[in-house]
Known about the structure:
The chain has a single domain (6-222), classed as Rossmann fold (3-Layer(aba) Sandwich), CATH 3.40.50.720. Helices cover 46% and strands 16% of the residues. It contains eight helices and seven strands. The chain has helices at residues 15-26, 54-68, 91-119, 130-134, 140-160, 178-181, 185-194, 203-214, and strands at 6-10, 30-35, 45-48, 73-76, 122-127, 165-172, 225-228. The protein is globular, with a radius of gyration of 17 Å. This is 3-oxoacyl-[acyl-carrier-protein] reductase. Belongs to the short-chain dehydrogenases/reductases (SDR) family. Residues 5-178 form the Ketoreductase domain. Keywords: Oxidoreductase.
Amino acid sequence: xxxxxxxxxxxxxxxxxxxxxxxxxxxxxxxxxxxxxxxxxxxxxxxxxxxxxxxxxxxxxxxxxxxxxxxxxxxxxxxxxxxxxxxxxxxxxxxxxxxxxxxxxxxxxxxxxxxxxxxxxxxxxxxxxxxxxxxxxxxxxxxxxxxxxxxxxxxxxxxxxxxxxxxxxxxxxxxxxxxxxxxxxxxxxxxxxxxxxxxxxxxxxxxxxxxxxxxxxxxxxxxxxxxxxxxxxxxx
Length: 236
C-alpha cells in the first residue's frame, strides 16, 4: 500500500511525462503536471508553466498547493533536444538545452524544497537518459545536461537525506515516443540492434520505475541511477 501523495510531473503533457502522470493517478496520488501547452492525462491538474522562468514556476507551485496541497513528489521530466554535431552546434543550441534540462530542473526542485523541509518528507525523481552516461554523437548538449542530473541528485541526497528527502535518477533508453518515431528508419534499426532486449521500451515501463521510487517501498534508496533501457547502457 502506497501513501497517497501530491505529485508534480514537469512536462507531463506528452510522451514519458504523460505516462508517468497517468501511472501516478492509477496509484492513487494527487497529480499535477506543468506544460507550456496541451494538458496532462484525465484526473490530473494541468498548470501552464515554463521551467525557464522562476516566477512562472513559483506561480505554478502556489496554484498546485492551493488545490492539491504541498507538493511531496517532484518528477523533473521537462526537457528539450537540439541535436547536431559539435562543430555545427551553436552556443544557443548548447545553452538552450542546458537552461531547460538542467537550470529549469534546479528552479523546480529549489521551489519544492521549501515544503520538503517543512514536512520532513520529499521525493525527487530526475528523468535523465542513457545518453547521459553512455554518450551520443551529436548530443553533446543533451548528454551534458542529463549526466549533470546525477551529480544534482547525489548532492541533494547529501544535503537533505537526513530530512526525509530522497533524490534518484531514472535513465530511460530508447522509448517509443514521438521523439524516437521522428528518427530515420535506418537509425531506428541501428539503435534497436544495439539493445540487448531487442526492442524499444514503452513509456509505461519508465513510469512504473518512477512510481516505485516515489512509493513507501523505496524510502531507503537515494542517489541511485535506475536504468530503464533494455540493457543498452550496462555499466555506464
